[in-house]
Specification:
about 200 residues; alpha+beta; five-stranded mixed β-sheet; 4 helices; 13 strands; endonuclease activity; nuclease; Uma2
């Protein structure tokens, strides 16, 4: 793994993360360590489809939001995460643009979604670590998207006491079923769309 010149063996900082050459690879910074995010055509296509679905739903509802994904990033208690898709209020996105930053903070996010890459280290991160991190950061909705054996979306909603935030599963929608959710705008789609190629 490529590291910053000042810390060839870690722990790493945000500066080390920013110094990494892109080369088509993505990394996250968690607990002082750089983690390469797996990606393939299947994963990247699903992330693009999900962002397109969210943008379309927001446009139809005339919602004043911004839909984004990696390489834009989210600051958590563990470090820097680069979700596959997320939604923020448009004013928050404008402020980030004015400040020339690509980092957003948990309470500003309305939704974050991760596409699971099975049989990789990031699968456990998406299903366990990020569930705790994103809840502690105050992100209201977290979607975990599985592509195998058929596309499905697990919808988690922030619940619990303010001092112990936790996600509760609202439902799991599989291909052939409709995901329906009210963000600041209504979203409705069949998870099968996530495997379509355009």
């Amino acid at each position: 793994m490529t590291a910053g010149a000042g810390h060839p063996h870690g722990p790493y900082t945000l500066y080390d993360l920013e110094e990494l050459p892109e080369e088509g690879r993505r990394h996250e910074l968690a607990d002082g360590w750089l983690h390469e995010l797996p990606g393939d055509l299947w994963h990247d296509n699903a992330a693009e489809q999900l962002r397109r679905i969210l943008k379309e739903a927001a446009r139809q509802a005339n919602a004043d939001v911004h839909v984004a994904g990696a390489p834009q990033e989210v600051a958590t208690s563990a470090g820097i995460r680069r979700p596959d898709a997320f939604v923020v209020d448009r004013d928050v996105a404008r402020l980030a643009l004015e400040r020339r930053t690509r980092t957003y903070y948990g309470p500003d996010l309305l939704l974050v979604a991760e596409i699971v890459t099975p049989r990789t280290a990031s699968e456990r991160t998406d299903r366990v670590r990020k569930v705790a991190e994103y809840a502690a950061t105050g992100i209201a909705h977290y979607w975990i998207v599985d592509l195998e054996p058929r596309p499905s979306v697990t919808v988690l909603h922030l619940d619990g006491a303010p001092d112990r935030p936790a996600y509760r599963a609202r439902r799991r929608a599989r291909a052939g079923e409709e995901v329906r959710l009210e963000l600041p705008f209504p979203v409705e789609f069949d998870p099968a769309r996530l495997s379509e190629m355009e």
